[in-house]
Amino acid sequence: MIELKKAHELDVVELTEDLPEYGVCQGSRGTVVEVFEKPEEAYMIEFLENEGEISKIADWVKPGQIKNIDLIAKEYYRTGLAALKTGNLVESLRHLRKAIELIPSYIRSLHNSLAQSIGPHEDWPKFIFAMRLIWLLDPDYEMGRENLAIAYLNLGVQEAKGGEFDQSLITFHAALAVKASQEVVDLIKNNIASSYTALGTRAFSNSEMEQALWHFGNAHFMAVNEMTRSNLGKACFHYANFCWDAGDVDKAIDSYQRAEDAGLKWPEVLNNHACALGTRGEIQGAILMLEAAASLAPQDKIISSNLSKLLTLSTVETKDLVTQNIPVNFLTPPLKSVALHVAA
Length: 344
Hints:
Blueprint: E1 12-15, E2 29-36, E3 42-49, E4 54-61, E5 66-68, H1 69-85, H2 89-102, H3 106-118, H4 124-137, H5 142-161, H6 165-177, H7 182-205, H8 209-222, H9 226-245, H10 249-261, H11 267-279, H12 283-296, H13 301-312
Antiparallel strand pairs: 1-2, 1-5, 2-3, 3-4
Helix pairs in contact: 1-2, 3-4, 4-5, 5-6, 5-7, 6-7, 7-8, 8-9, 9-10, 10-11, 11-12, 12-13
């Protein structure tokens, strides 16, 4: 270990012996506030106690009575960075950890150095690795955790923009597992909703209705807003039509109800719900639905015809009722990346 004794103003030093005349003991740390050269080298040092509330001044401390913590820490830090550049991670972290133990603010310097050297290149896997090194050195450093979450988030955005939606979800969930600010957490959830929406739209276009409904449901769960709620309602409606066509009337009725609960109180939804209820023999419920649909779309001939059949024919064949569809226009929430944070 380098034991440099000479110090400069503002250097942090540690006593190597008790100084009873000043009321400070061996191991106490203070800051050099003045350097004397005559009649011999000596220092005025301020020692803070009780978290900085009380200070003691030692106005004539000799070089042999201190060790320069700043210089020792700088040497550890320099050696650690050199080892990091050569890829010797074990050696690097050993030296960097010693530097940070001596001067805790070095974690901020290291973090900023990595953020400024890697961040602009948007090499997010490399930056994630760098922030995990910061975590190994100091798990409580909040900005390191914040930038780790942001790096995962931005990597997920890259993957999603490249069409890798399944992989982006894995990455976004990794971001969500990191303790970060609520602002970053909300952005992660919105991006998760965006990827689920894209997967839901893809599944719908492939006629994979159950999968589509699952994805839209997850999107709404992650980001509850009008866009995801509307998409979920539309997905429920189309899934209900799918169940109706497959002959699963009970599941169709349940899904029509879910579409309405999601705010999709459109005449087409109410009409098809009525058809399903009529098929199950719930004529009164079907009439209520059709009358509500007719109030929303009084000129709709299909709704008027279905309502007329139910009102005038007590033995109506519900297979004669006609269902309707809604054009597909799912909306995808925009993907958003985040700028890295650098400590002042």
